[in-house]
């Protein structure tokens, strides 16, 4: 998305977003994509998967792939704490767990609070950021979870 493009119509109207932290950065997901939030529990590792795919978990009989968003975004790995949670979201019709440092809040954003991300150098991939939300003096990156996780993680983990 370039600076001349507009924000997706669904986001122009604002809406409700679950916000969470990765380090000092704030991110948001459309609340309707969130199915559940669980405290972090150990997962079963799957051999030959990328480092950001932590493994799979058993969620009431369903095998759910778990992705560490810190590692997916190239951030340093940290030790999980009592605040670390798994946010369960629907991606391409399948459940995926996202490990985040902490859940912050559910925000209702007005259209005036949502802006398109700035155009950056072509070598910087920001396609997974749908928009930026103004929150106080800071910004929250609103994620396109389909682009963040993509279709390979659920398929790869389920094939194992």
Give a quick set of tags describing it.
160 residues, mainly beta, OB fold (Dihydrolipoamide Acetyltransferase, E2P), 6-stranded mixed beta sheet, 5-stranded mixed beta sheet, 4 helices, 13% helix, globular, disordered N terminus, disordered C terminus
What would your notes on this structure say?
This protein is mostly beta strands. The protein has a single domain, classed as OB fold (Dihydrolipoamide Acetyltransferase, E2P) (Beta Barrel). It has four helices and eleven strands, in the order H-E-E-E-E-E-H-E-E-E-E-E-E-H-H. It has helices at residues 9-12, 69-72, 145-149, 152-159, and strands at residues 15-22, 25-30, 34-39, 53-59, 62-68, 85-91, 94-100, 102-109, 114-115, 129-135, 138-143. The protein has a six-stranded mixed sheet with strand order 8-1-2-11-10-9. The chain is globular, with a radius of gyration of 16 Å. The N and C termini lie far apart (35 Å).
Topology:
Elements: H1 9-12, E1 15-22, E2 25-30, E3 34-39, E4 53-59, E5 62-68, H2 69-72, E6 85-91, E7 94-100, E8 102-109, E9 114-115, E10 129-135, E11 138-143, H3 145-149, H4 152-159
Parallel strand pairs: 2-11, 5-7
Antiparallel strand pairs: 1-2, 1-8, 3-6, 4-5, 6-7, 9-10, 10-11
């Amino acid at each position: 998305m370039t600076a001349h493009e507009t924000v997706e119509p669904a986001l122009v109207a604002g809406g409700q977003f679950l916000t969470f932290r990765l380090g000092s950065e704030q991110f948001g997901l459309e609340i309707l994509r969130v199915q559940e939030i669980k405290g972090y529990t150990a997962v079963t590792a799957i051999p030959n998967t990328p480092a950001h795919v932590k493994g799979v978990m058993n969620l009431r009989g369903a095998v759910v792939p778990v992705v560490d968003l810190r590692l997916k975004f190239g951030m340093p790995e940290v030790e999980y704490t009592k605040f670390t949670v798994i946010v369960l979201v629907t991606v391409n019709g399948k459940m995926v767990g996202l490990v985040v440092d902490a859940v912050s809040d559910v925000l209702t954003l007005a259209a005036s609070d949502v802006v398109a991300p700035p155009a950056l150098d072509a070598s910087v991939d920001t396609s997974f950021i749908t928009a930026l939300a103004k929150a106080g003096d800071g910004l929250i990156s609103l994620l396109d979870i389909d682009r963040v996780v993509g279709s390979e993680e659920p398929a790869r983990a389920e094939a194992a």
